[in-house]
Structure of 2,5-diketo-D-gluconic acid reductase:
Amino acid sequence: MEHVVLNNGVKMPLLGFGVYQIPKEDCERCVLDAISIGYRLIDTAQSYFNEEAVGRAIEKCGIPREELFVTTKVWIDNYGYDMTRASVLESMRKLRTDYLDLILLHQPFSDYYGAYHALEDLYKEGKVRAIGVSNFYPDRLSDIAAFNEIVPQVNQVETNPLNQQIFAQENMVKNGVQIEAWAPFGEGRNGIFENPVLKEIALKHNKSVAQVILRWLIQRKVVALAKSIHRERIQQNFEVFDFELSVEDMETIRTLDTGKSLFFSHQEASTVDLFVELIKKRRDLM
């Protein structure tokens, strides 16, 4: 496994296993499969409703806790200093761990400043090893980095061949923040797995398109999160350290960048409306 070193000296695996949209009934098995294959970074979130399943897998896997890198994210409805602090401690309980390797603020809305101050204090107390944000665009990332005591260690954003986050990554490097990719496969949107450019590169290396995408991210020093509920695909996604893309391959993939999200823009008012509705729906589930 290759690693990056965060701005506070913590080592973070460059490849992880994400559990977004994995049903509760499958999650524990999938995480156990991933850990047995060799994944050490496991990424979940309060809003995924599967922290407890991840916690059971962590407890059962047989791997020393210090060898795992466990990440979760604070949901918007838990923002504000007191609620964020309480929710993180509850996440730790569900995950059956007395510390987190990384805790992120999930979205750049509502009282994320109060929430971030809670993360800073939890970091100082040693309850979390690294803190960060998710879906923070360059302006908001620069803002939170400039006007807080602790610069975020990580910013997790949509990053894939069709939305490559070139400028965003440059801004993160400038601020000393590590970029991490969600939706590296774009959830299959826009025919990404059938893209002729990616298929040609995959054929040349005798790899799948998914493996090429993960390798492309790793070579850009982007932490990548792969997800599947099928053990054979989980295994295949892990087999990306035995080949290397050429400079030409990397430049060719760069031509696919549209600079646009495959999902939504956090800078549009309609996205705020979308998350207001999501908050309401998740309240009914919690």
Notes: The domain at 3-285 is CATH 3.20.20.100 (TIM Barrel). The chain has a mean pLDDT of 96. Residues 142 and 224 are 22 Å apart (CA to CA). The chain has one domain: 3-285.
